[in-house]
Amino acid sequence: MSRRPSLCAAFAGLTIALMAPVSAHEHLPLRIEHRTAIRDLPVPSNPAHSLELRAVNLDRWPESEIHAALRTTAQILGHCGIRITRVDVLNVTAPETHRYFDTPRSRELARELALPKPAVFFTAGTRQVPAFDAEAIGRGNSRSRPELMDTVWIAQGARDLGIVVAHELTHVLMDSGTHDNTPGNLMAENTTPQNTQLTALQCELLTATGRRNGLLRGVD
């Protein structure tokens, strides 16, 4: 997670039940307005792993902003030989209560959409306490909220958006909340334009774990 403005504390596993879950017989009034497939992302020089993403736009973020962020994310992950081959962007109209990241409501939203993972949700903000600009939820911190497994939640206003998405996706692919405050490292707690590098060991961990969890595939 990235705390406002840029402090990251991923995998805190904080869950606050603010409302009862929707009954199994009820459905959220969701509407997918349209889908866009993004394929023209940077390709690493020696791709060894492929990644497909789903991106959910819950707050009418400009498509150009999401696209630009994903280009930056693709460039950063490309250093580990990961090629983002496709991103399906879904513009979703949801109730006001579900446009913000909030564990019980976001569980309902994720359950209703039932998207392939990993998925990145671009939200209107967060109602979690404490408030973070972004949160990564992998296998290790989703036991009490399985619907959110392998997802990233980004709040409107997050700075250095492409770097934040890359940072949080790396947490998911590694299935780890570990940070590395070595100058320049992507996984430093502070996500800044200066922190974009991953070590060979980090690349090995995230690709091996990502492949084992079915989030990465080999390149044909």
Summarize the structure.
Helix content is 25%, strand content 25%.
Descriptive overview:
- The chain has about 220 residues and is of the alpha/beta class.
- It has a single domain (about 30-220), classed as Collagenase (Catalytic Domain), CATH 3.40.390.
- The protein contains 4 helices and 11 strands.
- The chain has helices at about 65-80, 105-115, 160-175, 200-210; strands spanning about 1-5, 5-10, 30-40, 50-55, 80-95, 100, 120-125, 125, 130-135, 150-155, 215-220.
- The strands form 2 sheets. Strands 1, 2, 3, 4, 5, 7, 9, 10 and 11 form a 9-stranded mixed β-sheet that branches. It has a two-stranded parallel sheet with strand order 6-8.
- Helix 1 links the parallel strand 4 and strand 5.
- Helix 1 (about 65-80) packs across helix 3 and helix 3 (about 160-175) packs across helix 4 (about 200-210).
- The radius of gyration is 16 Å and the shape is globular.
- The protein starts with a strand and ends with a strand.
Largest sheet: 9 strands, mixed
CATH class wording = Alpha Beta
Task: Describe the global form.
Answer: globular
Rg: 16 Å
Number of helices: 4
Number of domains: 1
Q: Approximately how much beta-strand content do the residues carry?
A: 25-35%
Quote the CATH topology.
Collagenase (Catalytic Domain)
List the uncertain runs: 1-7, 12-25
Strand elements, count = 11
What sequence of helices (H) and strands (E) makes up the elements?
EEEEHEEHEEEEHHE
Percentage of residues in helical conformation: 10-25%
